């Protein structure tokens, strides 16, 4: 019995286990290459072709995943990302602004400091939350109603 295929399968399994522990998707691509080398061994390919198969499939899948990941648009920072912070896009009512372009507002049942982001002078009204910076709500007129 040829143990070459068995070692390829064991290597693929080890890479999957390490990927589960570390959370990197690239190791799954490399384990895919090892699995194809194991299949090549089962089909009777020599060791050279097994290694070439593992390198081409594993390396190609890794390169393809890297290119796909690099082309994805970067997400906004957590402070202004609606996917990470559901308060972004909500509205608050501002009754009066201070001279330093801040105001005290009530949002979700507690008091917050709102900071105005914009070029014009802020006026009382309803504003859209565009960012949360610590315990301050950054609001904008682009969302004022």
Q: What order do the helices and strands come in, and which of them pair?
A:
Layout: H1 4-22, H2 26-42, H3 47-71, E1 91-94, E2 102-107, E3 110-117, E4 125-133, E5 136-140
Parallel strand pairs: 3-5
Antiparallel strand pairs: 1-4, 2-3, 4-5
Helix pairs in contact: 1-2, 2-3
Walk me through the structure.
This protein has 145 residues and is an alpha+beta fold. It has 2 domains: 68 residues, no CATH class; 66 residues, Beta Barrel (OB fold (Dihydrolipoamide Acetyltransferase, E2P)), CATH 2.40.50. It is built from 3 helices and 5 strands; from the N terminus they run H-H-H-E-E-E-E-E. The chain has a 5-stranded mixed sheet, with no helix packed on it. Helix 1 runs antiparallel to helix 2 and helix 2 runs antiparallel to helix 3. The mean pLDDT is 89.
Give a quick set of tags describing it.
about 140 residues; alpha+beta; OB fold (Dihydrolipoamide Acetyltransferase, E2P); 2 domains
Low-confidence region ranges: none
Per DSSP, what share of the residues sits in E-state strands of 2 or more residues?
Answer: 15-25%
Tally of helical segments:
3
* Strand runs, count: 5
Class of secondary structure makeup: alpha+beta
Q: How would you sum up the major sheet? A: 5 strands, mixed
Mean pLDDT: 89
Trace the largest sheet across and list its strands: 1-4-5-3-2
- The helix content is 40-55%
Element-level helix/strand string: HHHEEEEE
Query: How many structural domains does the protein architecture include?
Result: 2
Roughly how many Å is the radius of gyration? 27 Å
Whole-Å distance between the termini?
A: 76 Å
Shape, per Cα inertia axes: rod-shaped
């Amino acid at each position: 019995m040829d143990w070459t295929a068995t070692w390829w399968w064991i290597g693929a399994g080890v890479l999957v286990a390490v990927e589960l522990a570390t959370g990197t998707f690239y190791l799954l691509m490399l384990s895919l290459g090892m699995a194809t080398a194991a299949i090549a061994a089962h089909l009777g390919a020599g060791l050279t072709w097994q290694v070439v198969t593992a390198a081409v499939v594993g390396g190609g899948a890794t390169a393809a995943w890297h290119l796909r990941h690099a082309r994805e648009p970067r997400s906004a920072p957590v402070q202004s990302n609606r996917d990470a912070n559901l308060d972004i896009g909500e509205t608050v009512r501002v009754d009066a602004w201070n001279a330093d372009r801040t105001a005290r507002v009530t949002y979700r049942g507690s008091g917050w400091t709102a900071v105005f982001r914009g070029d014009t002078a802020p006026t009382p009204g309803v504003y859209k939350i565009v960012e949360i910076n610590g315990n301050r709500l950054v609001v904008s007129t682009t969302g004022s109603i």
